[in-house]
Amino acid sequence: MTKVNKMLERALSIRRPPHAVEGVGAAEDDGGDEPGDVSKTRKHMSIAVRVTNYLTRTGYFWPIVVIGLVIVIVSSVIIHSRDLVCISASSSDHISRLRFFGFDALESDFGSLGVPWCRSKHGKTVEWTYKDLLRGLEEFVPIYEMRPIKNNMHGMGFDHSFGLWFITQWLKPELMIESGAFKGHSTWILRQAMPDTPIVSLSPRHPEKYLKKGPAYVDGNCTYFTGKDFVDFGSMDWGRVLRKHGITDRSRVLVFFDDHQNELKRLKQALKAGFKHLVFEDNYDTGTGDHYSLRQICDQFYIRGGGHSCFKDSDEARIRFRRRKFWEKAVDVEELCGPGEAWWGVRGEMRDDFNHSNKAISYAEHFTNSRFVESVLDVYWELPPVAGPSLTHQTRYDPARTSAPIVEDGRYRLFQRLGLSRFDTSVFNGYTQMVYLQLLHLKFPVVLIVFRGKRSVPKRYGVV
To answer: Which residues touch 65 (CB under 8 Å, ≥6 apart)?
Structure first.
């Protein structure tokens, strides 16, 4: 009888599934009073395992997994939609621009046609960082909201107003000089940066003259050389002016130029006067503007991002032709190049005085101008745009000729958090590469060698 029972037990064990056998063994090993039961093992299976087994047997498992993944992806897009670029449905040009360049290409589009910065003599750069600019923006937005001249058409917009305020506040000069005041907006910006520092303003017309037509600003701690008392920056007796204000260290003076004059001329005049810190408001790109700018001067083949081709079938020509349709300040090759394929300056011209005085210059002269500027530069820094065009909806400057913005395209939350979304889009349409210069003051003559064929001609600029 015992032998029969053993044979029966072996037969039953063969028919049990493996996991049931292991369960029995485990129960017996644990000292359980009853042998392991398959039904008990199944009762302790998790609901997730049961559902998975059921779906696998019925063939619905993978379709449900795919549907679940789709739901997760769609939910993620909806949740993070605020981080995407805000596009105005009313701006057909802006939408066309986004479609043309592609959403993901907006950021990399900056500087794609080159950004030729003047090279400083010793490779120095500014002390401030990206984080400093961001903190400055956060502080400046409420200041700008209080500006007395809300509509400063033909004057500085938000970008350059911030740049002037930030640089001035960082340098903390003992005297501020501005050449070109217009309605007084730049004077007001300087005053916000340095509430107690005296200002000297040179402008053919006094800002108060504009009060008859609308808002203007006149500062109580500003010495105006305007109207009948106007004196051009290059003709001013700066020694007398500085003594009057008790200034002995000229490196503690900040000079701001917004007078649309040849910037090479102004640079030499500032050097002669012994000034060190300069800001030029309108630093026009090559082929644009009404005066010869530092950006134009330093647009050279030997500088990274500089130099141009007038060949109409070149890659640059094709890119410029397309971009001309989207950006007001973009120029195609036909606009860029003048007679004899002269592309430097504006079609080979050195413009001056609001485009009232133009002089054709050779490339050799243009090259010499660049080398001179480099010889006296300690720092050259162009203010980047405050924010990308998909955020500001600006249509003026061409991003392909501009450094990356402080607030990059796609960072709408940051743009909104800084308060920039509260402004009308028109205030962002005046960017023209504002530039800050820190000059060297050498104690020996600057001599450059100008190559003309096989002969070299030294050109002396005098002691600076």
So the answer is: none
* All residues at 6 or more sequence positions from 52 whose CB lies less than 8 Å from its CB, including other chains: 61
Assess contact for 298 and 267: CB atoms under 8 A: no
Q: Please tell me the distance from the alpha carbon of residue 359 to that of residue 344, in angstroms, as a whole number.
A: 12
CA 300 to chain centre: 22
User: In whole angstroms, how far apart are CA 241 and each of 200, 205, 441?
Assistant: 9, 20, 20
The answer to whether 176 and 194 are in contact (CB under 8 A) is yes
Residue 444 has pLDDT above 60, yes or no: no
Q: Report the pLDDT averaged over residues 206-222.
A: 93
- pLDDT over 80 (residue 129): yes
Domain residue ranges in the chain: 2-81, 110-307+343-383+433-463
Alpha helix positions (H), 87-129: 92-101
Q: How far apart are CA 117 and CA 123, in angstroms?
A: 12
Q: Which residue in 289, 294, 266, 277 sits closest to 202, CA to CA?
A: 266
Asked if the model's pLDDT at residue 159 lies above 70, the reply is: yes
pLDDT over 80 (residue 22): no
Residue whose C-alpha is closest to residue 317's, from 332, 299, 339, 335? 332
Closest Cα partner for 329 from 397, 265, 242? 397
Kindly report the length of the chain. 464
What CATH number belongs to 110-307+343-383+433-463?
A: 3.40.50
For tokens 């003709």, name the residue: 235
Map residue 245 onto helix, strand or coil.
coil
Instruction: For 323-364, write each residue's pLDDT tens digit.
Output: 988 899 999 999 999 999 999 999 999 999 998 999 999 999
Q: What is the DSSP letter of 327?
A: -
Report d(CA 232, CA 81) in Å as an integer: 54
